[in-house]
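A quick aside before the break. I want you to see a complete sequence-to-structure record at least once, exactly as it would be stored in a machine-readable document. Don't worry about memorizing anything.
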Amino acid sequence: MSTLYHRRAAARINPANDNRLPADLSSPPTKLAIGWSLLKQIVLEWRRRSRSRQTLAGLGSHELRDIGLTIHDQERECGKPFWRA
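That is the input. The structure line, written in tokens, reads:
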């Protein structure tokens, strides 16, 4: 069986642990984990911007007027690269 299984079993048997996870499982995230999480959030934001700009590019003049934008506003926003806010 895996080491993780044995650690969890030991944590359940030892009454001093009060059903807590072993220290290595309940420790705060590492810098690497935080870095990956931040990178994931950045990529998700870039995808959201890209999709929003594609949707905006498909709107007609009547729809733009409904949301208070001009064709120039549409061109300016859709001309930005996905990484630029």
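Two observations worth writing down. Residues 58 and 74 are 10 Å apart (CA to CA). Residues 31-57 form the longest helix (27 residues). We'll return to this after the break.
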